[in-house]
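Reviewer 2 asked us to include a model.

Predict the structure of this chain.
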Amino acid sequence: MAIEAQEIEDLIRAAFPQAKITVTDLAGDGNHYAAEIIDESFRGQNRVQQQRAVYAALKGKMDGKAGELHALALTTKAPE
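Predicted model (structure tokens):
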């Protein structure tokens, strides 16, 4: 089952309301996305901590074979 880019953004935005979020459908199939999330809350966190926070915001959409989202390439950082 495919997921829309807007749904991914909405889930992330719920956890990071002030973030700059860009979601791109890489293959046009609703299964392979890239997301860039720039948020102040990432300051002082390493990349693993940042990405775990984003995955938690997705509320299981990437979990196992039944997950709606097959692949998500993440870029996370604090604002410059």
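The helical segments are 5-15, 47-57. Residues 14 and 57 are 8 Å apart (CA to CA). We have added this to the supplementary material.
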